Request: fold
Amino acid sequence: MPLREGEYFILYGGPKALYLLKYSKGLRFSTHLGELIFPEHIEYGDKLKSNTGHTFYLLFPSTSDLILFIKRKTTIMYPKDIGYLILETGVSYGKKVAEVGSGSGGLTVALATIVGKEGKVFSFERREEFNRLAKANVENYGLSDRVEFIIRDVALDGFGIENMDVVFVDVPEPWNIVPKALEALKPGGFWASLSPNIEQVQKTVFKLEKNGFIRIKTVEILEREILIREGKTRPRERMISHTGYLTTAQIVRT
Ligand SMILES: C[S@@+](CC[C@H](N)C(=O)[O-])C[C@H]1O[C@@H](n2cnc3c(N)ncnc32)[C@H](O)[C@@H]1O
Reply:
């Protein structure tokens, strides 16, 4: 099936030549490995040569690609952390979830993709500029139909919604969100937070305990790529190491 106007694809010319592009008629794109002029009909899996003879491939974008290529003005939640939290909290098609704060919309893109058309993501942000940015990033990927963006300081004013399956919290003071999450979650629902510092985690966990959350668990996920080469296979020197500690918990009926 030929790509349609506005569809995203990965242009892959090797690990150092990877781009996320939006298809449009007459598309041209310049890279350090030459310029590409795209024919009118292109399909995922196609091979194309640049004017310098370098071979590029047209691939489906992964959800990680969509997250990593968004415009960022805040730190975003990384795919290694999002993947873990999504599985640990049972996010799937049709679920209703809330997140605070929207930031650049990295996590929002992942959640919106996974809850699908039957689900809903309520994304809370206290700063207008980040609300606008996250909204634009989600709109760009055509995911707006399942996301509601709300400008609000959740620590002060709460979520104002109920019956959520999961509440995701990526703010500097997650412990202030704990009492508000109690009102937003359905009984048995999940808390999921990310904090870069252990002091933040301690304060959050103590507050979760005090507010009746159970099954509280904190982990750290480290991602180390392995270079597979004849006779010299070893890990890459650089890795995606510390991003944040991840805490999950569940609330019960009182
Ligand atoms: C690290 S960013 C979130 C990044 C986001 N998870 C992503 O993947 O792009 C933290 C955001 O939380 C917002 N924030 C902090 N405290 C908040 C609060 N009490 N209510 C609403 N937003 C808050 C900040 O303005 C900031 O934009």
User: Anything to note?
Assistant: The helical segments are 63-68, 79-88, 106-115, 128-140, 154-157, 178-184, 198-210. The chain has two domains: 8-59, 64-251. DSSP finds seven helices and 15 strands in the chain. The CA atoms of residues 182 and 251 lie 8 Å apart.
